[in-house]
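Ticket #4471: structure output looks truncated?

Reporter: J.K.
Steps to reproduce: submitted the chain below (460 residues) through the standard prediction queue, then opened the result file.
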Amino acid sequence: MATACLEASTVFFSSLSEIFYRRELFPLSWCLIQSDAGAATGDMEFFKHSDFDFLGKKWPFIYLSLALTLAGFISLAVRGGPRYGIDFRGGALITVSFANRPPVDKVRAALSGKLPVDVQELSGKPEDIIGIDAQQDTALQASRQKVLDSLDAAFGQPANGKYNINAGGAATLADHLRDPLAAASIPMTDQQLQTLVSNIMDYRKGHSGLIKSLDELASVPGVTPPVLNVLKQQTYPDSVAVVGVETVGPKIGAELQRKAILAVLYALGGMLVYIWFRFEWIYGLAAVIAVFHDTLITIGLFSLFNKEITLTVVAALLTLVGYSMNDTIVTFDRIRENLKILRREELEPLINKSVNQTLSRTVLTSGLTLLTALALLIFGGQVLNGFAFALTCGIIVGTYSSVFVASPILIFWHNFMEGRKRSARGAVVPPRRPNAPVGTAAKTPSAPKDRARPGTAKVK
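Returned output as attached by the reporter:
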């Protein structure tokens, strides 16, 4: 019975897969299968039978890597380390919305001189993000209030004794409206008042946290003309509103910073152990050096371009570590295969041949991923800018490091070991005879000479 059920299920799923991948029903799936088959047979290769001398051009790229690494270290030393975001250094991110959004330079000018802040512009949205550095909660609250007062003085409207409907929450608005509604002879129970205020808050939340004009509330359920008249008498819509506050304490920021560094180091250590087990230890060391090289250059570029390192950037660095390691392993795997096939070929031509054989795969994967990262960098906005910048730089650096950094390490190690073997063979000295003076080589006793010709016997 079990065997019959197993055979029936096998026939069913085989038929289902055949129907699913039929060209007439799913032409896109058919095209994908055909393209995969073409890639497997070599039809998708961009570089067929290429013979580029990559390792012959390794020194310019090695010098470029050294220059970028040195420039990054100098920039980090001058700036006092990486420029960490609020996630790591502690503080608050205040998202501010404007009825008529001013240029970001004017926002910075309104806050400059009062307290150290960092203003970021959100493209496509009427909000700005203002970062505040503070080491204590009391200082954080004072800095936040100073930011609000400065922005309100520069871009806000005078209160004239009225309540700012864009500032408080539902409970505060209900307290300001309860007595005026009763004085205007508008019968409303406490439950009805709470429903009215909740509807107003929902409308404000759906419009970027900002009510530009009180006349807009005429479409809100429960806002009748008498209620709207009371709202105009008691409240006013300020043109600046805080729509979000994210706070990170300094202790939490330091802990996140420590864990982020450990995450990158653990990833590198785990990959070193895996490649050591999968290949040889020198392969693992070369791959980890190449990935560490990519990470250092990317962090140096962040410092050179004065960009913040946030949690999303750490996620991009971990993604970069895995991506660059995968690219390096593909090349190393082809080198190992060729070492078994081309036993008599020198190592450098063999590595060149291996890199050329994997060139099409490298261009396809790295090129498509680079296009995606560039699209995020250009169109992703300020929130994804750091993530996309890290991926873009890391893909470019990681692709050439697999060829021009990891592979030369194998060649240098091979040449070093060959040199040691030759030195060891050249240093072998024949043993001295007993009681012979130093420097006198031992002479091997010669066999007694047989004067008879081969095949003749001696006559006594």
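Triage note (M.O.): checked the attachment and the full token line is present. The domain at 55-79+250-419 is CATH 1.20.1640.10 (Multidrug efflux transporter AcrB transmembrane fold).
Status: closed, working as intended.
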